[in-house]
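@channel sequence for tomorrow's demo:
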Amino acid sequence: MRIKICGITNLTDALLAEAKGADYLGFIFAKTSKRFVAYDKAKEIIAKLTTASAVGVFVDDDFDEIERAAHDLGLYAVQLYAPVTRRFDNIKVIQAVKVENAIDEEMLNNPYANFYLLDAARQGQCGGLGLTFDWTMIPGNFDNIFLAGGVSMENVEEALKKPVYALDVSSSVEVSPGVKDHRKLEVLLKRVKQ
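structure tokens (generated this afternoon):
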């Protein structure tokens, strides 16, 4: 099972997550997020990565601006909350799908998306809430789904049994928003990578 550690804001956390087996590191560029990281800071961190792929998380930005930023930062993929309506040059696209009471099947058939990220939402808010949705709703006919929202040591065993490509973890391995708890991070990564 692959795993993405999201909400990376500093080099120490990034290098530890990478060393312990994280496949992807998520950098949040939405200014309203408690885990926001500036482009220049993210670029410094990304330049030092050797095995983990960098994913940029964008919420309301213009697609052209996102594409420019992705190339400048050296991102492997962009995770977008707005419906994706075009291809990105040499950049993978993760279409984020907010899940509250149901999964929008139409969003899961986006011809421009390479991956889908199912993220627990409450009253329109999504990401970093530490909340889960009903995982029995996850469709079994996809091989490119990231499972996000409330994945933690308490439920990782159950998450590992779900028909998903990767887990996406953020708040459950933090001391405070954007600062990882190194012990929790190591334990969770070890369990996923066993």
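heads up for whoever presents: The CA atoms of residues 46 and 91 lie 15 Å apart.
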